[in-house]
Amino acid sequence: MPSQALLLRVAPLIFVSLWSTGFIAAKYSMQNADPFVFLCLRFTITAVALIPILLLFGAALPRRIWSFRHDMITGALLHCGYLGFLFWPIKNGVPSGIVAIIIGVQPILTMALASLYIGEHLDFRKLAGLLIGFIGISIVIIGKYGIALGSSGGLDLFDLSMCLVSLMSMALGVFYQKKFCDQSQLLPGTLMQYVAGALATAFFALLFSETWTIDWTPTFGIALIWQVLGLSIGAVMLLMYIIKNGEAGRLSSMFYLVPPLVVVEAHFLFGETLGALSIAGMMVCVMGVYLVGRSAKT
After folding, report:
1. C-alpha–C-alpha distance, residues 22 and 236, integer Å
2. Of 44, 50, 121, 241, whose CB is crowded by the most CB atoms within 10 A?
3. Do residues 170 and 252 touch, judged by C-beta distance below 8 A?
4. Which residue segment(s) compose the domain that 282 sits in?
5. Which long-range contacts (CB under 8 A, 24 or more apart) does 115-124 make?
6. How many structural domains comprise the chain?
7. 285 three-state secondary structure
8. pLDDT digits (tens, 9 = 90+) for 138-170
C-alpha cells in the first residue's frame, strides 16, 4: 500500500529524532535515581499505560506468557540490557555524546548478525564498513580521553565495558526481534517486552544494591514522562513496526544518525564538547555506515 510505503520511509527519520533525546533525558534522570531503579519505574509505568491503549485498539491482553517468550527475551535485551548498561556510564559522568557514539557501532553488528543468521547479504563493503566503524569509534574515544583512558579522570575501563554490554544487547535485541518476533502482535508484544524489562531491571537493581530512593523534582518528572510517552511508547512501538516490516541490517543503519544529533543536543544543553580528532573519528564512523548502506542498496 502506498501509505505504508510512505510510513516506512518517514518512520526512521521520526524514530531517530525521538531516540536521540533519550540520551539527553537520561542525563537529567540519572541525577535523581540509580539507573536500574529508574528504568524499573519507567518500564512499570509504561506497561500499565499500555493496557488501556490495548483495550482502546481492540487488542487482546496477553494470557499465556509462554506465547510471548520471544517478545520477553527481546524486552530483556533491548530495555534492560541496552538501556540499563547505557544509563550506568552516564550516571558515572561519561558524556552522553561519547556514550551515543560508542552505541553507534550497533548498526554494523546487527548487519553482521543478520548476514550470518538470517541470510541477509554480507559483502566486502559491509565488512569494510564494520572495520571502519570500529576505527572511527576508537578515534573518537582516544580524541576525547587520550591513550590512557582510565588515568587523570578519563574514561574508566569499567564504564567503557558497560557501554560495550549495552552495545551488544542492542545489536542482539534488534536481531532477535527480527528473527523470532515477526509474527508477534505489535501492542501485546510490546507490553510483554516492558513486563520483562521491568522484571529484569528490578533484578539488576537488587544485584547491584542500588538504592530505591528517588529524588522527585519537576525536572525529573518531566524527563520521566517524556521517556514513558515519547520513548518507551512512541519511539519503541515505531521501532517494532520498522523491524517487523523492514530489513534488519538495513534499517539498523538509521541508528548512526543518532550520535551526531546527541552531540549537538548535549553541546547546547550540557556544554559537552568534542575536539577536532573526535569529530574526525565521528566522520569516519559515518563513512563506515555509508559503505554498509550503499552496499545494502546494490
Report:
1. 11
2. 50
3. no
4. 2-297
5. 115/249, 117/175, 117/179, 118/175, 118/178, 118/179, 118/248, 120/247, 120/248, 120/249, 120/250, 121/295, 121/296, 123/295
6. 1
7. helix
8. 777 677 666 655 544 556 778 888 888 998 898
